[in-house]
Design brief:
Length: 259
């Protein structure tokens, strides 16, 4: 399979403006995400998609590949699809596009491998989303953490920013998972996704994957072990910095990416 990665990133986050260039251990967050993704797929197959020249210039300054996209996208999947069509002029037609959110600084090559593997083993799989463990009651209640519940085959049943499954009815006795924003699509299904009309639950929960569920498609969830964090707030940034200090991958690229 021709697998490429696209990392959508923009400076105008409503909850944390400028976060792609916020430093973690002296390196802009987007640098961590780009490099750690490239360790899995190679620098020639890993692209940052952005509407901001500052992000574009930083990625190119450290030897990465970046592509400018429109500044009108409201969803990361729209930005990813635009970028994919531009990137294919360089890489050839993609089979799978791994969308890695620019606020996942602790992504690992193993996580990328886990996310892509189902496409090689199950032709029915059109989209995969990683999920991690919710580690505390506080995380379960946190609206910045997107929770997911799955069926017995590992397909998503529902995503919510509310605490699901219900804690008061015994959630501590069943697995509690959060969405990890590493989401590979089969190439044509990414375009299909963006052609689907937005849906009520997608808008209520502000979770893109609900659009697929509401239109009757399946989202294959793959559990990834270990500690990971999506950075939505300044507090998350501090947690990511502490985790990075103990990360075994970080020392291998730290010096090359420091500004």
């Amino acid at each position: 399979m021709n697998v490429i990665a696209v990392i959508p990133a923009r400076m105008g986050s409503s909850r944390f403006p400028g976060k792609p260039l916020a430093p973690i251990a002296g390196i802009p967050m987007i640098g961590h995400v780009w490099k750690r993704t490239a360790l899995a797929l190679g620098q020639d197959k890993t692209w940052v998609a952005t509407c901001d020249r500052e992000i574009f210039d930083y990625i190119e300054s450290v030897g990465g590949r970046a592509v400018m996209t429109a500044d009108t996208h409201e969803r990361c999947t729209d930005r990813t699809a635009e970028a994919m069509l531009k990137i294919e002029a360089h890489t050839g037609r993609a089979d799978v596009v791994v969308m890695v959110q620019g606020d996942e600084p602790l992504v690992t090559p193993e996580m990328i491998r886990q996310a892509v593997e189902p496409f090689a083993t199950d032709p029915a799989v059109q989209v995969v989303n990683l999920m991690g463990d919710l580690e505390s009651r506080e995380a379960h209640d946190d609206p910045n953490e997107v929770k997911v519940v799955v069926d017995l085959a590992g397909n998503a049943l529902y995503f919510s920013r509310e605490p699901i499954p219900s804690w008061k009815k015994g959630a501590r006795h069943v697995p509690m998972y959060k969405q990890v924003c590493i989401i590979p699509f089969r190439r044509d299904f990414l375009l299909t996704f963006n052609q689907l009309a937005p849906t009520p639950l997608e808008e209520v929960e502000s979770v893109d994957m609900l659009r697929l569920l509401e239109h009757g498609h399946k989202v294959r969830m793959i559990h990834t072990p270990g500690r990971n964090i999506g950075v939505d707030t300044a507090r998350d940034l501090a947690v990511a910095e502490a985790l990075m200090a103990e990360d075994p991958i970080f020392p291998g690229y730290a010096q090359a990416l420091r500004r």
